[in-house]
Design a protein that fits this description.
InterPro entries: AttH-like_dom_sf, AttH_dom. By secondary structure, the protein is mainly beta. The chain is 5% helix and 56% strand. The chain has 2 domains: 203 residues, Beta Barrel (AttH-like fold); 147 residues, AttH-like fold (Beta Barrel), CATH 2.40.370. The strands form 4 sheets. Strands 3, 4, 5, 6, 7, 8, 9, 10, 11, 12, 13, 14, 15 and 16 form a 14-stranded antiparallel sheet that branches. Strands 17, 18, 19, 20, 21, 24, 25, 26, 27 and 28 form a 10-stranded antiparallel sheet that branches. A two-stranded antiparallel ribbon has the order 1-2. The chain is globular, with a radius of gyration of 20 Å.
């Protein structure tokens, strides 16, 4: 990673009048509010996203998992991966939009996947620091970030959201193993990204689900949300990701990329942060996606090199095996092989402290295609 960063000394990242130098990320990376804005293309593989997951309950105590992911393909190679053509136009944004609602008591998962192609001026309102992701047909996400608060309004044929998230200025910037504040190695050595997370947002608002029989279910929900903002130069799209949300407010994040590289962060309930890697991730089972018919790991046990909330081992027990994000037309590379179709499991699970046997929180997990991860039964990275 150090050599890769040094080789990019002449590169600069431009946001409005501010420039970010890859070899000097500690110099001035900008505020979390400034970096909410879409960023300019740096290279053919410039890429980034805005992400939110939440585990919430309605007034009767029924649980729901909520997810929105909006991937901004700035580089021409990234655009080609999504739409089959190279577009070297920074004003034209190709957005991979995904949205999930899991109504666990009803055993229903609603998935929305669209590919908006829109001009930058339509996508972002700088005066209000507001995103507007839309395909100008049937999907619209409006998401602003001011001060300590985010507002999110979402409309699609299956549901509408009207949410407020507070405590949104409670931020953790990531850090790579060389001490670059705000930067991580995004898998391969020449792939990197800036990355901050808001791990303890408090979400409340109205969730309306359009039922298949034409009726509507509208409920007030509240709970903890986790927001990620990430951007950089990286072609890596295959990983396993875990975010532990402990009941006492502590948080843990772990990326495990195809090939074995890891980036981990733990913040205890008092706000103390540790960075780590060398975690053993054991696959306890597998699930098959509905559209691409691809398999991912499903259910995990983690063995940590440091104590996390008093334990070095946790198990995640997923609540559903239906929460897949899928883009069948997308292609990617892994271990020199072309993978047709993109599949990612993304869902909630009970977080169990294996030392005590207690459920101590919720984990949200992402899990990539075993063809790309090589962590299927008897494969290279299975544990």
């Amino acid at each position: 990673m150090k050599e890769a960063v040094e080789s990019m000394k002449e590169k600069e990242y431009t946001f409005q009048s501010r420039k970010f130098y890859v070899n000097e990320p500690n110099k001035d990376k900008g505020s979390i509010w400034e970096n909410w804005a879409p960023h300019a293309r740096m290279s053919a593989k410039s890429f980034g996203w805005w992400y939110m997951t939440a585990y919430v309950h309605d007034a009767e105590g029924n649980p729901y998992f909520l997810f929105t992911g909006n991937s901004d393909h700035m580089g021409e190679n990234m655009k080609e991966r999504m739409i089959g053509e190279k577009v070297n136009d920074d004003n034209r944004r190709i957005i991979g939009h995904t949205n999930t609602i899991a109504d666990y008591n009803a055993d229903r998962v609603i998935r929305v996947m669209r590919l908006p192609d829109l001009p930058l001026e339509q996508m972002y309102d700088p005066e209000n620091n507001k995103l507007h992701i839309t395909n100008n047909e049937d999907v619209s996400l409006i998401w602003d970030f001011k001060g300590d608060t985010m507002n999110m309004k979402y409309d699609c044929p299956e549901s509408t959201w009207d949410f407020v998230m507070t405590n949104a200025s409670d931020v953790v910037w990531h850090k790579d193993k060389h001490g670059h504040d705000g930067l991580i190695q995004q898998g391969a050595e020449d792939d990197w990204s800036f990355y901050y997370c808001l791990p303890n947002c408090q979400l409340s608002g109205t969730l309306t689900i359009n039922n298949e029989d034409g009726t509507k279910k509208s409920v007030q929900v509240s709970g903890r949300a986790w927001v990620d903002r990430q951007w950089g130069d990286f072609a890596s799209v295959h990983w396993e990701w875990a975010s532990y949300r402990f009941n006492n407010g502590a948080a843990m994040h772990l990326y495990s990329f195809a090939g074995g590289h890891q980036e981990g962060l733990y913040r205890d309930a008092e706000g103390n942060v540790q960075y780590f890697d060398n975690v053993i991730v054991r696959q306890n089972g597998y699930a098959k996606s509905e559209i691409c018919k691809a398999w991912t790991s499903w259910g995990w046990t983690y063995e940590f090199p440091i104590e996390i909330e008093g334990s070095k081992q946790f198990t995640v027990r997923p609540k559903s095996n239906k929460e897949f994000l899928e883009f069948p037309s997308m292609t990617s590379e892994s271990f020199g092989k072309t993978i047709k179709g993109f599949v990612l499991f993304e869902g909630a699970g009970e977080l169990v402290n294996d030392t005590t046997g207690e459920v101590v929180g919720i984990s949200i997990n992402e899990s990539g295609d075993i063809r790309a991860m090589k962590n299927g039964p008897y494969d290279t990275y299975q544990k």
